[in-house]
Amino acid sequence: MEHYFLIKHLHMSAAALSITFFVLRAWWSVQESPRLNARWVKVLPHLIDTALLGLGVTLMLLLSVWPWQLPWLGAKLLALLAYIGIGTVAIKRGPTPRVRALAAVAAVATFVYMVGAAIRHSPLSWLT
Questions:
Q1: Which of 56, 83, 85, 112 has its CA 20 to 30 A from that of 106?
Q2: Based on the structure, what is the number of domains in the chain?
């Protein structure tokens, strides 16, 4: 438990890096920029998101909390699955720039929901 605050803040920092880099890649995708094909652009998100997930699992283990015990945590993890799916449409699977842009907006909205669920400890997120 002595490392809780460090791990929590690393998790929050990884989340901030993840969404910042997602928005940048989504912009490049909508603009059909060749920057999206750079090797570091393809590798870095996986490193950041792996750290983010690993830190989240570490927090669950430290606190002995599980998604089936806390509705807000279960909702956050379901939203994470939606975010990943929508994010793939925004970055590479969307057939047109318009579809990719709409998916990017939906992915960012899903991310904002997850942040609200985590801060408010409620599946209603910012509505509570």
A1: 56
A2: 1
